[in-house]
Design a protein that fits this description.
The structure holds two protein chains of two kinds.
Chain A: E1 3-14, E2 17-28, E3 32-36, H1 43-51, E4 58-63, E5 69-72, H2 86-91, H3 95-98, H4 106-118, H5 134-148, E6 152-156, H6 164-179, E7 183-187, H7 191-197, E8 200-205, E9 207-213, H8 214-217, H9 220-227
Parallel strand pairs in A: 3-7, 3-8, 5-6, 6-7
Antiparallel strand pairs in A: 1-2, 1-4, 8-9
Helix pairs in contact in A: 4-5
Chain B: H1 5-15, H2 17-42, H3 46-55, H4 57-67, H5 71-95, H6 100-122, H7 125-133, H8 141-170, H9 172-178, H10 182-204, H11 211-220, H12 227-252, H13 256-274, H14 279-283
Classes of the chains: A alpha/beta, B mainly alpha.
Chain lengths: ~260, ~290
């Protein structure tokens, strides 16, 4: 078993309030994990932490050496009024390969074409991005992830406000990545979708509630426990003393590294 | 001078060296300032250009106080003042919750008041007018060389950082997830804005040098829908405005800086009204539409 991503006592948050509190564990290379939880439970924050756009308040989040990351944020800072075509947007995904200076070659253009047809956007190359529908834009962003060709893929709520057919197409892509031994983490709200398509799930309620095989992690009992957390910040909350996480363990699912799945203290 | 229209257009530039110098300066400024303006506009920073134009005043004034009305010290002073304001505003925006519009406004106001204070310490109002409104018709060799240098530097930097600049405008968060270049290149870009404003202020004055940056690119937005073509169209508009402004200034004895910027302004207004993406054509009732 190869580890792709390791959390060690990871706390992420804003203004000294934790949004992800003392997360321990690791993500296996080639695994497909759904990240589940209520609004405000820390899912997007965790994605930002892994992608490296948010620095940890405590602990570490370490990606295995040489693993490239593709990150599709929930709230893209994409400027849709920018005068760009679909092909310009998708070719941003060539960055890891060509960087700032190198010319885009014929093989790159071929990749772009393949990516567009893989997401069902053939013939959209020259469409201005401000004329795309929400679903088409999401398909284009998936095409960019395809072009990035990363080993660790982070998708933050990629299926929001997307119609059923597009969700089916995009799930097929996620499964293709899974089949290619890439490590994929997807923030999802639709629990049926998770049970149907995701082998593993991480249930968050600021702290990790359950993490493991999806059916088990999303048991009625775990879901009920995940609901019992206060979304609002408590301005008078006492300071969290490190090394003293009495209520941050999750009870039933063993994540001892020795059991061969993944570790959690 | 005979009265044919061709003579009216050509003769001023063939007969007078000062007009040739003015034209050379304006052409070089258009080549670099217009594409910089396109990126300013696409980043919704058009007014930042205006703020920066005010911010360079104390530097130019310091050069003027120490060395009199000389182009090199005033340029270096303007560069320093502009860089300090750009870096401070950018740093506050990136390190705190305050957005760049507010921090930029704060720093440029501090800088502008310092500048006015320094000019009033020594100069007469004629000197102040000179700094504020420029003298494109009196560009000497030093001034032309400085404009050529800054224009060349700008074009090289734009070519080199093109992909980062586009990526930062289009999807800043994506760029942050794949590269750490976003922030440094933003500062390089602000530096280019300052360089072009300073290069422009000898010709057009501190207040109006930003005009050649913003007006042509704002007008270009109505004609085309690609960054590359917007840069080319804005350069063309800048060139047309430079030539027509200089001709107006020559034939009607108008101050050249405002004449050039007003010409650009006229192109802008015409573009707003008449261009394919302008007011009139986009409001026309469409009688026909395609089946798919």
């Amino acid at each position: 078993m190869t580890i792709c991503l390791t959390f060690h006592d990871l706390t992420l948050g804003y203004n000294s309030h934790p949004a992800v509190h003392h997360l321990d564990g690791s993500v296996r290379k080639g695994s497909l994990t759904a990240v589940v939880g209520a609004n405000g439970s820390g899912k997007s924050t965790l994605m930002k932490g892994v992608a490296g756009v948010l620095k940890p308040m405590a602990g570490t989040c370490s990606v295995a050496v040489g693993v490239s990351i593709a990150y599709l944020p929930q709230q893209s800072e994409l400027d849709r009024s920018f005068p760009a075509r679909v092909i310009d947007l998708v070719s941003l995904g060539l960055w890891p390969r060509r960087g700032m200076f190198a010319r885009h070659r014929a093989e790159d253009r071929e990749r772009l074409g393949e990516a567009l047809s893989a997401v069902g956007l053939e013939g959209f190359d020259n469409r201005p991005i401000d004329t795309l529908s929400g679903g088409q834009l999401q398909r284009a962003l998936f095409a960019r992830v395809l072009v990035q060709d990363a080993e660790l893929i982070l998708l933050d709520e990629p299926f929001n406000a997307i119609d059923a057919r597009t969700v089916t197409d995009l799930i097929r892509l996620v499964k293709r990545w899974h089949g290619e031994e890439r490590t994929v983490m997807v923030v999802v709200h639709d629990l049926d979708l998770v049970r149907q398509h995701f082998p593993e799930a991480l249930l968050l309620a600021r702290r990790p509630v359950a993490w493991g095989e999806a059916q088990e992690a999303l048991s009625a009992r775990n879901l009920l426990r995940a609901r019992q957390f206060h979304e609002a910040w408590d301005e008078d909350a006492p300071w969290c003393v490190s090394g003293h996480h009495h209520d941050h363990r999750y009870d039933e699912h063993s994540h001892d590294p020795r059991d061969g799945k993944r570790g959690a203290a | 001078m005979s009265g044919t229209p061709i003579d009216w257009l050509i003769a001023p530039f063939t007969e007078f060296v000062f007009m040739q110098r003015a034209l050379a300066g304006a052409v070089m400024l258009s080549l670099s300032a217009c594409p910089v303006g396109v990126f300013l506009m696409l980043r919704r920073m058009s007014l930042t250009g205006d703020a920066m134009a005010h911010a360079i005043l104390p530097g130019a004034a310091a050069g003027f106080l120490l060395y009199g009305l000389q182009i090199v010290p005033m340029t270096i002073g303007g560069l320093i003042a502009g860089m300090v304001v750009a870096l401070s505003a950018g740093a506050v925006a990136r390190l705190t919750v305050q957005k760049e519009d507010a921090s930029m406004a704060a720093f440029y106001l501090i800088s502008l008041s310092l500048g006015v204070l320094m000019v009033s310490l020594r100069g007469s109002s004629v000197d102040l007018m000179h700094v504020l409104f420029g003298t494109v018709l009196a560009l000497n060799n030093d001034a032309l060389l400085l404009i050529a240098l800054s224009s060349g530097l700008t074009l090289v930097a734009l070519f080199a950082f093109w992909r980062v600049l586009v990526a930062e405008c289009l999807d800043a968060l994506f760029l942050r997830s794949v590269s750490k270049l976003g922030s440094p290149v933003h500062f390089v870009f602000l530096g280019l804005v300052v360089v072009n404003l300073v290069a422009g202020f000898q010709a057009l004055g501190t207040l109006l040098s930003v005009g050649l940056m913003i007006l042509p690119s704002a007008a270009a937005r109505f004609w085309v829908n690609r960054v590359e073509s917007m840069c080319l169209v804005s350069i063309s508009i800048g060139l047309v405005a430079s030539v027509s402004g200089l001709l107006l200034s020559y034939h009607a004895s108008l101050p050249s800086g405002p004449a050039i910027i007003l010409s650009a302004g006229a192109v802008y207004v015409a573009s707003v009204l008449l261009a394919p993406r302008g007011v009139l054509l986009s409001r026309l009732p469409r009688t026909a539409h395609r089946t798919a």
